[in-house]
Prior knowledge:
Blueprint: H1 7-17, E1 19-22, H2 28-44, E2 54-56, E3 65-68, H3 76-83, H4 86-95, E4 99-107, E5 117-120, H5 122-126, E6 128-129, E7 133-139, E8 150-153, E9 164-169, E10 172-176, H6 182-187, E11 188-190, E12 198-202, E13 207-209, E14 221-228, E15 232-233, H7 235-251
Antiparallel strand pairs: 1-12, 2-3, 3-4, 4-14, 5-13, 6-15, 7-12, 7-14, 8-11, 8-13, 9-10
Amino acid sequence: MEHFKNKHALIVSFRENGFVLIPGFLDGDDVATIHGHLEKLIKDKVPSMPPEHVFYEDKNDPSTLKQLQNLYSYDPFFYEMMFRSRFKDLASLLLEDEVVPKNMQYFNKPPKKGQATPPHQDGYYFMLDPNEAVTMWLGLEDVDPENGCVRYIKGSHRKGIRAHAKTQTLGFSQGISDFGTDDDKRDEVFFATKAGDLLVHHSLIIHRADGNNSKHRTRKALGLIYYAARAKENTASKEKYQQQLVEEMKKKALI
């Protein structure tokens, strides 16, 4: 892990705040390479991917593609990025443990159609004991409040799981039901990011993202999820929940 500067400061910030921002984690050439692989994957693989791996704001409009799951299953480039890279090393550093790679996702918020991401905790979906995991959010374009920046409730990862309820947002089936307390408003922070910047957050941090209110800008990013090796997954409950969710989405003609 010699390629990480100020490792102690990163760990301390992650412990205290529940997130870290690393500007310029990838350079412009790296970001361009990712864009190229994404474009090829979307063209060649998306038509045959299972519906639960492909989400659209409007499934009848291909231009509204908003989320892809398990990218590493469809391109060796993304496999290497997920399993043999600085991303995995960073996850291990911050979680202070060996890590288990779990998912790599593509996110976009199409202009004028990209919905807000409801406030939630990733750990609610993960079903881990202890709930120790990280989600990495890699910006592939410049992102700000106009096109949907990520917002965190600083320190909220130290307060356990909040109550969640169903949402109408595809890809984010559960959201915090009592969000908007005085503490939430006081402790919320956001980051305008550049392409190549990396945000990493704890599985219990409360976070949300604005919708895309711009007229022409997209909002493309990658998400990488790693579990700490010490975290044990309730696989039976998770598989049951995911199957129920897929069935509900199919009934509502969302996928």
